[in-house]
């Protein structure tokens, strides 16, 4: 994937800042029952923030990650083994994240972890709050137990303030989460890290409660499946 000029500017700004689909499920984070989504997640088609994959030396292409996992001796899943593998990983994640404030959502054969910004970070900060390190360590333990998955980390912001600032903040928060998981031994080549700024809200930005939901980091866990 070739980095466009806008992506390169995002990378430079972020480095500068750091140096300073088959059934319905009930989302434990929102309490809503919704249909499973299809496709490959929020990162696909996102131009802004895509340079973070490059910034962190993680792969910014599906092919690159696939080849890296194969090179690391992690075989691709096939057929019914995919669903079974993700079922077991979902159970492990739900057990690890019970009563933490982190939502676990099943989307077909994918898992999405929703980490509220107020739980993970202080206001206007990309520094992970101390009490959240243990939770991320539990996430890394499960990810290490189930290595045949890709890990997409994406940050989101509400619409308060300048869009450029919100974009950078969402990137830095995603990067903080991704780097911590990598530091816990999760294979770097499984990751793709990006920020969506304020462009992908899950609630209304007109209310304080809605803005709180929109300030979040999501981790999309997808199976490393044979084509």
From TrEMBL:
SUPFAM superfamilies to which the protein is assigned, alphabetical: OmpA-like
Keywords: Cell outer membrane, Membrane, Signal
InterPro entries: Bact_OuterMem_StrucFunc (IPR050330), Gly-zipper (IPR039567), OMP_bac (IPR006664), OmpA-like (IPR006665), OmpA-like_sf (IPR036737)
Principal place of residence: membrane
Signal peptide extent: 1-21
Localization annotation: Cell outer membrane
Domain (OmpA-like): residue spans on this chain: 108-225
GO cellular component, one term: cell outer membrane
Keyword Membrane: yes
Domain of life (superkingdom): Bacteria
KW Membrane (keyword) present: yes
Protein name in the entry: OmpA/MotB domain protein
Organism: Maricaulis maris (strain MCS10)
Classification lineage: Bacteria, Pseudomonadati, Pseudomonadota, Alphaproteobacteria, Maricaulales
